[in-house]
Amino acid sequence: MIFKTFFKQIRISHWIKNLLVFAPLFFGGHVLRVDELGSTAMLFAAFCMLASSIYIFNDILDRESDALHPKKKHRPIASGAMSIKTGIFIMIIFLVIAMLLASQFNFKANLLLSLYFILNLGYSMVLKHIPIVDIFLIAAMYLLRIKAGGELIDVYVSEWLILVTLFLALFLVIGKRRAEITSKTAEKTREVLKGYTKEFLDYLLLVVVSGVMLTYSLYAVSTEIPYLMYSTFIVFFGMFRYMYVVYILGGGEAPEKVLYQDIWILLTVIAWALYMFFVFYNALF
């Protein structure tokens, strides 16, 4: 029971976002370099430690509003299953582990890691209450993960990867806000939702999903990598399926859970990953 509460509080399911640090390694053709793979895995762990510590910090700040939410009220701190003192203790331990891991990174990677932590603190305390700012801050944190991964192993992160990631991050965050705003307790549980309407978020979703598809398509056809263009079919299907989840199934409030809750999204991600591995590493076959 104690371990279940612990793992629930640190929100391991959210760690999936930190896999973005491996993107430069993958697209740079360095996946088979054991030393760089190990370094990136350490960076992934550092981001996970920072993310979980911030989740604890945020849950302590929001424990009263979370208690009113039909789902968030079951979080350990909001429900009382974990005391604030215990939460602070775990948070400090995770921060220490993150700093120990960071001592192995270069200056630029540490700078981006620190910026990620600072922006997260600002988001938790103030900026999450400001419409549009909240969306772009979360999207910026996605980009920081990719940039940190690139700086760590000295791999150039292309403009295409930045643009696709930016639009995709905005798509996921806006979809999350749209799902939240339909909740009956929306205004009581997330102050920033008062600054949005469902119609406005629908317009934003249309813009960003178009951005994802356009930038990915341009990236796929602008390179000389054989067969890359055909991956657009998988990406388009994934985007349309996710929109189906948001608009028809009423999902999207927890993007990190959609991956394993919707079998079609999961299969699409797996298919894309396998296809891209073949495209970038076909010389191995």
The computed structural class is mainly alpha
Oligomer: single chain
Which percent range describes the beta-strand content?
A: under 5%
Name the shape in a single word: globular
Largest sheet: none
In helices, the fraction of residues equals over 70%
Average pLDDT figure: 90
What is the helix tally?
14
| Through-space gap between termini | 47 Å
Report the radius of gyration as a whole number of Å.
Answer: 19 Å
- Low-confidence region ranges: none
Q: What is the helix/strand order? A: HHHHHHHHHHHHHH
Give the total of beta strands: 0
What key attributes describe this structure?
285 residues, mainly alpha, 0% strand
Topology record:
Blueprint: H1 2-10, H2 23-27, H3 34-61, H4 63-66, H5 76-79, H6 84-102, H7 107-125, H8 133-153, H9 159-181, H10 186-189, H11 198-222, H12 231-247, H13 255-261, H14 263-281
Helix pairs in contact: 3-6, 3-7, 3-8, 7-8, 8-9, 9-11, 11-12, 12-14, 13-14
